[in-house]
Amino acid sequence: MSASPLVGWDDIAAVAPDGLAVLDCVGRFVRLNPAAAALLRADAEGDLIGAPSPFTLVEGAAECRAGLLEVRSDEQVAHWEPVRGPRREFAYRARSLPADPKFTVVSFRDVTDEWHRQRRVAAIARTSIALASEGSLGSTLDAVAQQIVQADGLAGVQILTLDSTGRELRLMGSAGLRHWDVFLDRLLECRDRGARLYMLDTLKERKPIVVPHRWAQILEDPAWEPLHAYLGELNWDSFVSVPLMARGRPEGVLNAYFAPGQEIGSRTLEFLAAMAEQAALAVDYATLLQREREGARRNERQRLARDLHDSIVQQVFSIGMQANAVGVLGARDEAVPAEAVRAFADEVGALSRTVLADLRAMVHELRPASSLRLGLEDAVTALVKSTVNRTGLSIRLECGRQVDTVEPELAEDMYRIVGEAIHNVVKHAEATTVTIRLAVHDHTLTAAIRDDGRGITESGGRRAAQENEDGEAATATGHHGYGLRTMRERTERWGGTMRIRSGARSGTTVRVVIPLPVRVQESPPGSEGSGSIPSAVPLREAENPARSGS
């Protein structure tokens, strides 16, 4: 005589903490326990009978060990969009009924919050790993922005940094937002029309600022009309701006655009603050590294200039003295042919002038600071003249009227970029003519260096031009590749882009585009001034007082 069960299986299913569901052969609900109905946000168990389930009819998932930064397990994951409430994530296992294989039993649980926390932890860990890499600051901050978007499903993220003076902002990292060349100009227009920018409040107050339903406010504000279409491409609603703090001072801001329906709670702000701290560390590290490199370059330039002066100038002086001595001999009554003396003197004099010209060119290239004080155009003009004198290359220089308004640090980096491009032409291109164009247009500094040489080829340090879809030639190896890498690093330091087009018959064109910085203004007393839209352009003083709305 067998003992009868103390509790029926229906009673057990009714009180089971996990959801239990029976599915038919096409994945529709046949039966649910109370826990399943609650997880699926159904008013009653029978409301979903016959409805399609989110579960895949596969018996179990292949068991796999999750990596340190992975959020996988041996469970499968399903996403559920309930009639009421936000989207949910269920971890589940499925088994076919042995007695009737056309039915499948699924046990599942809600892991939305748990997996969200895991994604955030993984994002912070991956960001920490990115900070230890040797990538540029721009690529690192792009990675930070991408991790935030992926972890929290945000509509978009932008990261802006302050320069060493604390007065200028640059857009250095973003995710989810389309690059738009005239965005900076439109931002200036909005600012001049009285648009409110919240991110400057973040910098001033050094704390996160949350603006619910910001997109609706911007739509209603005519001052933002120049950016309505662009911002409308992003499916977003609310806005949060978080300061990047390092060593007790603000290094920039992290702007987050939240999708409609996303909640901004304390845990969300805590996560954004953690990621902002990671970004601030990257900025601080890049600043320290840049200062160290600049100091090393400055010391090296000074040493080389001193060594060149002590050696070459003395040799030139000796040549000049020899020429004078020969001239004196020629003036005596001794039988020294005057024509031979004059020829020797002319030859030595020409040699000394050539060496002196080379010396001045080398010193100028090593220490361009004095020329840059006069402006970028004068410095590049001097470089072009010295190159023409040394090489005989035909170089045409075209400079826009506002080129000399560029700040000194940016001017020196652009000077170095142009100088390296000219050096590559002289050493590798076998060109006869070069055209250099410098201009400030739509609040960006642009440079284009074009030669009529042989393009990037295998010989001479260049290799075959294999262009990607952006038309950018593959970087060469050797010294030429190192020069291109240095040019790119200088460009990315300012949040700019560099593209190279090259062909065997069309020569090579190097194009550099660098956005000019945002100038952070002091808010007048009693005003709230500031913004949710980042940029990298100088903000002019607003002609009209900033409105206090939105």
Describe the secondary-structure layout.
Blueprint: H1 9-15, E1 19-23, E2 29-32, H2 34-39, E3 76-80, E4 88-96, E5 104-110, H3 112-131, H4 137-152, E6 156-162, E7 168-175, H5 183-192, H6 199-205, E8 209-211, H7 214-220, H8 225-232, E9 238-246, E10 249-258, H9 266-331, H10 338-366, H11 369-372, H12 376-391, E11 394-399, H13 408-429, E12 433-441, E13 444-451, H14 478-493, E14 497-503, E15 507-515, E16 518-519
Parallel strand pairs: 11-12
Antiparallel strand pairs: 1-2, 1-5, 3-4, 4-5, 6-7, 6-10, 7-16, 8-9, 9-10, 12-13, 13-15, 14-15
Tell me what the structure shows.
With 550 residues, the chain is α+β, with helices and mostly antiparallel strands. Helix content is 43%, strand content 20%. It contains 14 helices and 16 strands. A hairpin with a 3-residue loop joins strand 14 and strand 15 (507-515). Helix 3 runs parallel beside helix 9 (266-331). The chain is elongated. The termini are far apart. 33% of the residues are buried.
Shape: elongated
Distance between the termini: 79 Å
Class from helix and strand fractions: alpha+beta
Which band does the percent of strand residues land in? Answer: 15-25%
Order of helices and strands: HEEHEEEHHEEHHEHHEEHHHHEHEEHEEE
**Largest β-sheet summary:** 6 strands, antiparallel
Report the helical percentage: 40-55%
**Helical stretch count?**
14
